[in-house]
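Practice problem 4.
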C-alpha cells in the first residue's frame, strides 16, 4: 500500500506511526484523490476527524483527515497544507456526510472556507466578529480582559493558579502533620512498652 501511494502520488513523506496508523502528506491539489485512492483500494472508508494545526511561522495551516477502515482496525492520516492568509479548500461533504459538522467547526475556529459546504454558519460562537479563536494570533487573555466581566454575584471568583497552590500546600501540610502524629504515637507506645517491662 505505502509503495503504491509513493509511486502514484510522488511523495516520500510517509510515516508508519504504529502498525495500525499511517501518515502521509500530499499537496492540496491531490489530497482528495489520495483519500479516494485509499478508500477504493484499501477500505479506508470512515472519516473520523478533520484536524487543523496553525503553523503561523510558515504561514500555513496543516489540515489532517483521519480515515479509518470499516473494521476500525487501521487508520490513515492524510495531511495537506493550505495558505492561512487565504484559507480555503474544497469540502468533503459529497464523500462523507459527517464532514459537514467537522468543516463547520474548523471554519468557525480557524476561519477556513470549505468550498462546497453550504452550511458553514456559526456553530457555538454566536455573533462572533473577532479573529477566529484558535488562530495563534488570537490573544485569549487580552480578549477576556477587554470583552468579559464577572457576572453579578460572582465576586468570590478566585485566581485558579493561586487557589491550586493553596490547596496543594494544605494537602501537603495535612499529610506531614498526620505523619508527625503517627510517629509521636508510635514513640509514645514504644516508651510505654519499655516502662511496663521495667516495672515488672
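Answer key:
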Amino acid at each position: 500500500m505505502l509503495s503504491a501511494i509513493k509511486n502514484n502520488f510522488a511523495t516520500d513523506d510517509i510515516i508508519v506511526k504504529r502498525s495500525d496508523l499511517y501518515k502521509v502528506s500530499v499537496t492540496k491539489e491531490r489530497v482528495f484523490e489520495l483519500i479516494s485512492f485509499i478508500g477504493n483500494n484499501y477500505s479506508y472508508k470512515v472519516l473520523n476527524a478533520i484536524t487543523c494545526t496553525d503553523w503561523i511561522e510558515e504561514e500555513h495551516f496543516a489540515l489532517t483527515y483521519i480515515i479509518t477502515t470499516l473494521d476500525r482496525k487501521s487508520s490513515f492520516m492524510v495531511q495537506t497544507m493550505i495558505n492561512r492568509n487565504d484559507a480555503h479548500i474544497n469540502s468533503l461533504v459529497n464523500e462523507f456526510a459527517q464532514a459537514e459538522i467537522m468543516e463547520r467547526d474548523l471554519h468557525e475556529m480557524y476561519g477556513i472556507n470549505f468550498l462546497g459546504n453550504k452550511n458553514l454558519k456559526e456553530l457555538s460562537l454566536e455573533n462572533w466578529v473577532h479573529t477566529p479563536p484558535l488562530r495563534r494570533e488570537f490573544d485569549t487573555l487580552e480578549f477576556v480582559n477587554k470583552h468579559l466581566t464577572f457576572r453579578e454575584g460572582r465576586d468570590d471568583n478566585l485566581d485558579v493558579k493561586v487557589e491550586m497552590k493553596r490547596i496543594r500546600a494544605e494537602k501537603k501540610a495535612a499529610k506531614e502533620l498526620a505523619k508527625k502524629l503517627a510517629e509521636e504515637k508510635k514513640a509514645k507506645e514504644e516508651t510505654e512498652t519499655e516502662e511496663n517491662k521495667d516495672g515488672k
